[in-house]
Automatic annotation (TrEMBL), chain A:
GO CC terms: endoplasmic reticulum membrane
Recorded topology in the membrane: Multi-pass membrane protein
Highest taxon of source: Eukaryota
PROSITE patterns attached to this UniProt entry: TBC_RABGAP
Sample GO molecular function, one term: GTPase activator activity
Membrane-spanning parts: 197-217, 229-250, 359-380
Keyword tags: GTPase activation, Membrane, Transmembrane, Transmembrane helix
Protein name: TBC1 domain family member 20
Subcellular location: Membrane
Ranges of residues in domain Rab-GAP TBC: 51-237
UniProtKB/TrEMBL annotation, chain B:
Gene Ontology CC terms, in alphabetical order: Golgi apparatus
Protein name in the entry: small monomeric GTPase
Keywords annotated in UniProt: GTP-binding, Hydrolase, Lipoprotein, Membrane, Methylation, Nucleotide-binding, Prenylation
Lineage top rank: taxon: Eukaryota
Subcellular location: Endomembrane system
Bilayer topology: Lipid-anchor
GO biological process, one term: Rab protein signal transduction
Species the sequence originates in: Hippocampus comes
GO molecular-function terms, A-Z: G protein activity; GTP binding
Cofactor(s) needed: Mg(2+)
Catalytic activity: GTP + H2O = GDP + phosphate + H(+)
Class of enzymatic activity (EC top level): hydrolase
Cross-referenced InterPro entries: P-loop_NTPase (IPR027417), Rab33A/B (IPR041822), Small_GTP-bd (IPR005225), Small_GTPase (IPR001806)
PANTHER family assigned to the protein according to its UniProt record, in alphabetical order: PTHR47978
């Protein structure tokens, strides 16, 4: 495990400086190179701070999943959607998903989005009859919807369902259980004592189930943390959520060991994720764990040999397929630009008047850059997000 | 995080676990099952937190809630295991949590006939986990506040309950005081239901309470658990299957 870092990852100077660099030097050139430099985008999404703004996410997320923004699926019609076998369950879960929407959102607006949420879920399921809906799938869908809008969300959800989430979408949860079964071996590699304690308590791994199958969207109350993790997972191996789960448990090692060695107590403790986790640290630790104990190594254990994961076995091909994407400037059909569905985005609305500023900033000299840098100091909390609006 | 428990609810048990060894508090473990959407989360939340949750979310896997109660001068811990309703979760996921359960609460939604028709399957599933008639079981019809949309009449439900030798309670997690039934005055009906179960458990032989119900394997004493745990991967596989 890496030692605790001395640099404050939330230092606004640092964030601003890095993000300026990062967007101008890495992200934009990667988006515009032909083929798109997905490798660099991936690294950017997983590196400190993630993609930082939803505007950037809208550009980068599709590339991470090999989606052509000019060939998005059409808005699904409502005809016959209630005939789908999962219709009732989806409606039930979506109607209970109020917490996933921004706090101040008017309920009428939320209702529209919830309708769209039902639509996109059923649309992906309709196109993929081999996939089964699971409770928690809606937490993934809502995260996508809130960032990239309905049509792009369908495209992204479609790809995720075929690859990253594939194991969770079997008719039974056996494959999901198989993925969860990687958790304890990782812990055993790192902290045998903690591992043995948890085994003795017979706590099982269901405490991490919702983390895994919703990419933590179900358990984090701050949307920005969910987004940060989605940047990371979209850019990573499909097993990464399990490595993060291991990292979180390891991070809470003291707490765990001080708890009564009892299933109920431990399940209770672990299933409630602390909301103030040091995400950046945990992300880099998960990457370290992944490098030290990759899935292929763990899979040699007898307990993990009974099953094969589709998400793991198809990942290589998926990754290769993302390497041949043309940049949007090349893909763009002659009279389009209208074709890209506009998503809801509170943040974006806040920055609507910034088009002029945007252009100006593109041409900024280093001096002006320094001036903005100074502004950033006084704008600590909202600095990264708002400043990045400018790009 | 759906309806997290208020800190107060848990503090007593946490402090007792810090200062070893606590005066032995008996624990009653009750599993709550039934179709998705019938109100299991709301009912367990109502009992443990004393109110109807403003927003619930789909339960993914198993949620755990706990409350300390006082029955005839004895402090007892009631653990409620709130399970996911979607079938796929039950088959391979929730099993682990059926073990060592002292009582079962079956829930259906009085405004949803399908949730009532699922009950035989739930009962069967419990039997497969060695939770048969020897374990106290009750049947709860929830959402009685929605009187205009009742689909499952009391007669039918009562008949069904009788045929499975279970007591029936009709209630509402949302508005539990509107019941005329067993509750006296304005006390909370949901609370009364769970307390009835607790009383029943307390009146049973004490031995039964600290051990798993017959048939589910009596190997929970610490030493045999440790043996299970010595081989990491095997112990792990066992605990999850
Ligand atoms: N009117 C009414 N609604 C209820 C009652 N109990 C639960 N609900 C609602 O039914 C839905 C499902 O409840 P929930 O507890 O999440 O069901 P679960 O899937 O069985 O856990 C939620 O929208 C609740 O607000 C009740 O007693 N009366
Ligand atoms: Mg529930």
């Amino acid at each position: 495990m890496k030692a605790e870092e001395k640099v404050n990852p939330y230092d606004p100077f640092r964030i601003f400086w890095l993000s300026l660099h990062f967007v101008n030097l890495y992200v934009y050139p990667s988006l515009h190179s032909d083929p798109v430099d997905v490798e660099t985008l991936r690294r950017a999404a997983a590196s400190k701070g993630g993609l930082l703004s939803n505007e950037l996410r809208r550009k980068v997320w599709p590339k991470l999943l090999n989606i052509n923004v000019y060939e998005l699926p059409y808005k699904p019609g409502k005809d016959g959607r209630e005939n789908h076998k999962d219709y009732n369950q989806v409606v039930l879960d979506v109607s209970r998903s109020m917490k996933r929407f921004p706090k101040g959102m008017p309920s009428a607006e939320r209702a529209v989005l919830q309708e769209q949420l039902v639509d996109i879920i059923l649309e992906v399921l309709r196109c993929n009859p081999q996939l089964s809906y699971y409770q928690g799938y809606h937490d993934v869908a809502v995260t996508l919807l809130l960032v990239v809008g309905e049509r792009m969300a369908i495209a992204m959800l479609h790809t995720l369902s075929k690859y990253h989430l594939r194991d969770f979408m079997d008719p039974t949860m056996d494959s999901t259980k198989h993925i969860l079964n990687y958790l304890m071996p990782i812990l055993e590699e790192v902290d045998k004592e903690l591992h043995d304690f948890m085994i003795r308590a017979e706590v099982g791994t269901i405490f991490a189930l919702s983390w895994l199958i919703t990419w933590y969207g179900h358990v984090l109350s701050e949307f920005k943390h969910t987004l940060r993790l989605y940047d990371f997972f979209l850019a990573s191996h499909p097993m990464m959520p399990i490595y993060l789960a291991a990292t979180i448990v390891l991070h809470r090692e003291q707490e765990v060991k001080q708890t009564e060695c009892d299933m109920a107590m431990l399940h209770h403790l672990l299933s409630r994720i602390p909301q103030d986790l040091p995400y950046e640290l945990l992300i880099s630790q998960s990457q370290d764990l992944f490098r030290c104990y990759p899935p292929a190594l763990l899979a040699k254990r007898p307990a993990l040999q009974s099953r094969k994961s589709l998400s793991i076995s198809t990942f290589k091909d998926f990754q290769l397929s993302t390497l041949h994407q043309r940049p949007d400037t090349v893909l763009q059909p002659r009279h389009s630009g209208l074709d890209v569905a506009l998503p809801y985005d509170g943040v974006q609305q806040r920055g609507k008047g910034s088009r002029m500023v945007k252009m100006a900033v593109w041409g900024l000299s280093a001096t002006l850059g320094a001036a903005i840098f100074a502004v950033a100091q006084t704008a600590m909390e909202w600095a990264p997000d708002v400043l990045l609006q400018l790009f | 995080m759906a309806e997290s428990l208020s800190p107060g609810e848990f503090s007593s048990s946490l402090t007792s676990s810090a200062s070893l060894p606590p005066p032995r508090t008996r624990i009653f473990k009750i599993i709550v099952i039934g179709d998705s959407g019938v109100g299991k989360t709301c009912l367990t939340y109502r009992f443990c937190a004393g109110k109807f949750p403003e927003k619930t979310e789909a339960t993914i896997g198993v949620d755990f809630r706990e409350r300390l109660v006082d029955i005839d001068g004895e402090k007892l811990k009631i653990q409620l295991w709130d399970t996911a309703g979607q079938e796929r979760f039950r088959k391979s996921m929730v099993q682990h949590y059926y073990r060592n359960v002292h009582a079962v609460v079956f829930v259906y939604d009085v405004t949803n006939a399908a949730s009532f028709r699922s009950l035989p399957a739930w009962i069967e599933e419990c039997k497969q986990h060695a939770l048969g008639t020897e374990v106290p079981r009750i049947l709860v019809g929830n959402k009685c506040d929605l009187q205009d949309s009742v689909q499952v009449g009391t007669d039918v439900a009562q008949q069904f309950a009788d045929s499975h030798s279970m007591p029936l309670f009709e209630t509402s997690a949302k508005n539990p005081n509107s019941q005329g039934g067993i509750n006296s005055g304005n006390s909370d009906h949901v609370e009364a239901i769970f307390m009835t179960v607790a009383h029943k458990l307390k009146s049973q032989k004490p031995l039964v309470l600290s051990q798993p119900p017959a048939g589910s394997g009596a190997s929970i004493n610490l030493s045999s658990r440790m043996e299970d745990g010595t081989d990491g991967s095997r112990g792990w596989a066992c605990s999850s299957c």
